[in-house]
Amino acid sequence: xxxxxxxxxxxxxxxxxxxxxxxxxxxxxxxxxxxxxxxxxxxxxxxxxxxxxxxxxxxxxxxxxxxxxxxxxxxxxxxxxxxxxxxxxxxxxxxxxxxxxxxxxxxxxxxxxxxxxxxxxxxxxxxxxxxxxxxxxxxxxxxxxxxxxxxxxxxxxxxxxxxxxxxxxxxxxxxxxxxxxxxxxxxxxxxxxxxxxxxxxxxxxxxxxxxxxxxxxxxxxxxxxxxxxxxxxxxxxxxxxxxxxxxxxxxxxxxxxxxxxxxxxxxxxxxxxxxxxxxxxxxxxxxxxxxxxxxxxxxxxxxxxxxxxxxxxxxxxxxxxxxxxxxxxxxxxxxxxxxxxxxxxxxxxxxxxxxxxxxxxxxxxxxxxxxxxxxxxxxxxxxxxxxxxxxxxxxxx
Length: 397
Ligand SMILES: Cc1cc2nc3c(=O)[nH]c(=O)nc-3n(C[C@H](O)[C@H](O)[C@H](O)COP(=O)(O)OP(=O)(O)OC[C@H]3O[C@@H](n4cnc5c(N)ncnc54)[C@H](O)[C@@H]3O)c2cc1C
Prior knowledge:
Layout: H1 18-29, H2 46-58, H3 77-89, H4 98-111, H5 114-125, E1 131-134, E2 150-154, E3 157-164, E4 175-181, E5 192-198, E6 204-208, E7 219-228, E8 233-234, H6 240-253, H7 259-275, H8 278-285, H9 288-313, H10 323-345, H11 353-369, H12 379-390
Parallel strand pairs: 1-4
Antiparallel strand pairs: 2-3, 3-7, 4-5, 5-8, 6-7
Helix pairs in contact: 1-3, 3-7, 4-5, 4-6, 7-9, 7-10, 9-10, 10-11, 10-12
The structure holds flavin-adenine dinucleotide (FAD).
């Protein structure tokens, strides 16, 4: 593993060659231990992943559009898209702090006050604060407005009681973007409030859940009389729903903008590795038409993402159109994962190194893809959003 000190952290002198800069930096700094196409290497540790992500920011490849005043790079979504194409094409590990950088950061920029922006934004980019997202509850997933976690005003700030579930990365987070309610559950969208809760506050109990791929990313988080400072409330007490909707629109549309390019590189990896063995290539050939369809779909997802970027650059809101890439990518990627898994499952017993690396990677992709049509809003919910808010159809069957 390259140590942090050995990682080149120079940002490009000026914007305009972002793709070249990103490609060169990634080629130089993405070590074998970090590469997801070198599955035989021992996995990188959390500390190594954190060091890599901090270096990515220093090199100008994270916080690209955030203001320089908050440790961002002050550029536009054009550069963000250019960098993300290269990030997608590189076999990079999933970000440890994507919730900090892609959900909490944008929401802080939108509704946070000056003190909150100064306190939280640089800490996110420098990887001093990893964030988790405390929205879902046992009785409130698709129907988020049913959430019951209670926030009551006290002399010291706010007292929080309740339970969250499926909180990705909670056990390694320093802050939680928490959605709670000030009134009764029947009030639904009214009286919801967002907080930046410190995860070391007394009364927070985090329990990891082991997922199908053996990861311990998911957690249940219990809040028992947790006191949160007034200074950690984001926006106004009744603005939580509007802010949460904005978070979800960001999550569906621009979060992990690299996905279509990563998808293409996974397909390319499948084909390249299979070419290394005549028998594997013969198996691959029997899926040629399905893989051709997958390739077209990657281009369509790129187009959807690029169109949304142009929309945002023109100063327009994305609104429900954020559902387009989320729906299409998750469905297409799940089909690809199923086909790829079928192919690698048929590899001969004496498969060579590149095929074994591929099989390990595909196994991870296949298992994690099962969740892609669930998180950030399920497929059914995306279809309902499009039917109701874009086609103006009141109710789907
Ligand atoms: C990998 C992963 C990571 C996650 N990370 C986080 C996180 O960090 N923070 C967080 O807060 N949450 C997280 N979640 C939770 C996620 O947001 C919820 O799982 C999701 O919103 C669905 O809610 P649910 O699980 O309660 O399912 P439910 O809402 O109970 O849905 C069950 C099924 O019913 C369908 N359904 C529900 N309502 C309708 C309807 N009105 N019309 C038609 N069909 C419907 C759904 O589509 C689904 O198929 C994560 C989930 C996963 C899988």
